[in-house]
Model the fold of this input.
Amino acid sequence: MSSVRGLLEHAARRLTPAADEPLLEAQVLLAHCLGRDRSWLYAWPEHIPNATQIACFAHLVDERLRGRPVAHLTGEREFWSLRLLISPDTLIPRPETEHLIETALALELPDDARVLDLGTGSGAIALALASARRTWRLTGLDRSAAALAVARENARRLALHNVDFLASDWFEALPEQSRFDLIVANPPYVALDDPHLTRGDLRFEPRAALVSGPDGLDAIRHIAANAATHLVPGGWLWLEHGSDQGGRVGAMLRQHGFDQVELRHDLAGRERASGGRSPRRGGQAQSGNPT
Done:
């Protein structure tokens, strides 16, 4: 019978045409079938899994070759060192979104800051911030009841009690008087005809969490136009966006009264997130036609 090492080597060869990191994906899938973590595989390379575990692994490798995302096969994804439940109803958290977490944590916010996560999905952003700042109060909004069920279960499993999840289509369900020190979002920002939608993991993820109008900016336009109403004077708004959208997003923020507008790049040098500060004297965001 095959050892852990043999199973991984064979699976990595099979997965090479379908995966950017075939050995890593094989390790994640085998660890899932064994009920272990990846470090255990390194410690016990000569271990012989039983027939049920080998059959589980073979099935998952076959499904991965058919294109199904690893996170959907295991039902989990690690984000900000948190093990999160994932389902086909939620966007799969990406490592590049951790840059948004780093940006938020670097802001000078009150110890008891109120933070809003728009389109929370699995709760990844809200839960990462809640775990890093236990005195902050996080609220995650999503219009998908199925996604909110996943987010709430993640909070329960992680024993994070400083975060709540509410059903809302963007700001719609918030009380008019609600004000936050920071609003963050990884909104849909893919254009309707983007060819990437027919490739890779994106084929299996909820379209509503990915696509936002002909140019991908409809959701960001809505958030930029309405966020200041729910920010304290001088509160921050930070948005993840596409690698060619930074200039347009920054222009939207300025148009709606935000200052100290910044563009951040990820480790690969791609435009990744833009943010700005609401007017310190408060009031409504400036009106105008979306950019």
